[in-house]
Amino acid sequence: GLADRYPRQLSGGQQQRVGVARALAADPPIVLMDEPFGALDPVTRKQLQRELRRIQAEVRKTIVFVTHDIGEAFLLGDRVVLMRDGRVVQNGAPAELLRNPADPFVSSFIGEDRALHSLQYTTLAEIAGPAVDGRLFGVDGASPILPGHLSVLEGLRFLGTPGRAIGDGIRIGDEQGRPVGFLSLNDLVATLGMTLAADDGEAHAVPD
């Protein structure tokens, strides 16, 4: 454990873990985190990002997370507020900023790999069809179930596994693994096509 150690005896990652624990121990309604992982190495930073997501899923606290890393913002945030010179330029879900940047500044801040970012930070749950009364329409019971928090990119990788039998698509599960939505292959292809079209600024017609 870390309780008996002095701060100087802790690594940077351990100090950040203790800092997060101290902030949450007081049970505040809102937690402000100002670039908490900025000074860490990339490996430790990724680990703490995953831990913060896990903790947030358990404690369900509102966290205002300040960062200059747009990828980190998309990974951790339910909503992203992009500011310039003290003014809000755009405020929305990560998928909204990726698909519809408000102006050239937002586009340049996100970077040239907007299509890849969109596939990385748009979740399967965001594009899946809903379930009604706990039943999934048009779903073969043998269709695989994937957690809704997985990204579209992770879903595509799953579907691309050699020998994978998926039928018409995949079922989307909640935190307990219960199917709550369905994502057809057509939905995935359409999402991929719209993402690439938005990235290169061209419109592409997809035949029926």
Tell me the number of strands. 8
Structural class: alpha/beta
Q: What's the helical proportion of residues?
A: 40-55%
Task: Report the principal-axis shape.
Answer: globular
Distance between the termini: 60 Å
CATH topology of the largest domain: Rossmann fold
Largest sheet: 4 strands, mixed
Query: What would the average pLDDT be, to the nearest integer?
Result: 78
Q: What would you note in describing this structure?
A:
This protein is an alpha/beta fold and 208 residues long. The protein folds into two domains: 7-113, 3-Layer(aba) Sandwich (Rossmann fold); 129-195, CBS domain Like, CATH 3.90.1280. The chain is 42% helix and 18% strand. A four-stranded mixed sheet has the order 5-8-7-6. A two-stranded parallel sheet has the order 1-2. A two-stranded antiparallel sheet has the order 3-4. Strand 7 (169-173) and strand 8 form a beta hairpin. The longest helix has 18 residues, at 42-59. This is L-proline glycine betaine ABC transport system permease protein ProV. GO terms for molecular function: ATP binding; ATP hydrolysis activity. Residues 4-37 form the ABC transporter domain. It comes from uncultured Thermomicrobiales bacterium.
Q: What labels describe this entry?
A:
42% helix; CBS domain Like; 208 residues; globular; alpha/beta; Rossmann fold; 9 helices; 2 domains; 4-stranded mixed sheet
In short:
Helix 6 (114-121) packs antiparallel against helix 9 (185-200).
Provide the fold topology:
Elements: H1 12-25, E1 30-34, H2 42-59, E2 62-66, H3 70-76, E3 80-84, E4 87-92, H4 94-99, H5 104-110, H6 114-121, H7 124-127, E5 129-130, E6 145-147, H8 152-159, E7 169-173, E8 179-184, H9 185-200
Parallel strand pairs: 1-2, 6-7
Antiparallel strand pairs: 3-4, 5-8, 7-8
Helix pairs in contact: 1-2, 6-9
Protein name: L-proline glycine betaine ABC transport system permease protein ProV
GO molecular function: ATP binding; ATP hydrolysis activity
Domain ABC transporter: 4-37
